[in-house]
Amino acid sequence: MLDPHPESRFTMMGKLVSSWLSLRSMKVIESVKWVHNNGGASFFSKVPGNTPAWSMILRLRQPQLESHARLDAKLLEVMFRMFPDKLEWQDYDGLTPLHRAVLNGSIPAIEMLVRMGVDVNRETVDTDRRQVYAGWTAINLALMKRKMGVLTDEVRAGGIVEIR
């Protein structure tokens, strides 16, 4: 049951996060915790693959309802507590969770990531996909997207502001 689906190759975490996007229920968070406690948690949504499960949440625009955005941040926090060594993981576009949260305007996710200790000055890396420029920080990305409203006081206080 906890193994990846034989046809889709989605991990249990991938299936739960996928269901999260339509349900946004505390029951899904409890299910994620149960899967983790029973040895079925995977950082990736599919196997083999390099797509982190968090990307299914952070690749989307911030939900219109503030309550949904806060629930998203809660699930993300649970996931990153399971895999604390992956807090700075860069996805296939060379972006960390903080970069994605800034690009998509998710203030609750930004606040949670900063509280968990992400490096606000971590730079994007160049990939074959070239979705963003290499060497950009979360603040650079926010300025590029003209979303200054997504910068929290914590990011402003510790971030290097340099327009490239």
Written description of the protein model:
The chain has helices spanning 12-23, 26-37, 55-58, 66-82, 97-103, 107-115, 138-144, 153-158. 45% of the residues lie in helices and 0% in strands. The protein has 164 residues and is mainly α. It is globular, with a radius of gyration of 16 Å. It is built from eight helices and no strands.
Kindly summarize this structure in a few lines.
The protein is mostly helical.
Secondary-structure map with pairings?
Layout: H1 12-23, H2 26-37, H3 55-58, H4 66-82, H5 97-103, H6 107-115, H7 138-144, H8 153-158
Residue share in helix: 40-55%
CATH superfamily: Ankyrin repeat-containing domain
Q: Name the helix and strand elements from N-terminus to C-terminus, one letter apiece.
A: HHHHHHHH
Q: Tell me, briefly, the overall form.
A: globular
Q: What is CATH's topology name?
A: Serine Threonine Protein Phosphatase 5, Tetratricopeptide repeat
Q: How many separate helices?
A: 8
Oligomer: single chain
N-to-C CA distance: 49 Å
Average predicted confidence as pLDDT: 84
Number of domains: 1
Radius of gyration: 16 Å
The top-level CATH class is: Mainly Alpha
Keywords:
single chain, 164 residues, mainly alpha, Serine Threonine Protein Phosphatase 5, Tetratricopeptide repeat, 8 helices, 45% helix
